[in-house]
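go over my protein:
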Amino acid sequence: AGCIYCDMVRNQHLQPMLRDGLVHAIQLDIQDRTGLILDFAGQQSSPFELAHRWEARIAPTVLFFGPDGQELAERMVGMGLPDFYGEYLNTRLDTARQRLRQTR
């Protein structure tokens, strides 16, 4: 809450992709120590614990996971230049999709 860069990534990039069925995404609050979410092994963790385990210390950080929890593309840390963010995101998504197809 209150992260203008997270809002920009979510509202301008990820939500339109979600709406169009181009990605599956969830947002975690890296400061949330009380919420519960299942990790890739099916164990309950807090968003804070998962962010710590994944070394996601800066918001926004976008990670690209396969179904087994392996990262498929270089993560995007921070916002960077807004004019180029969408292209960087698309490049990472293309890489992740290619690697996902290779693992099937």
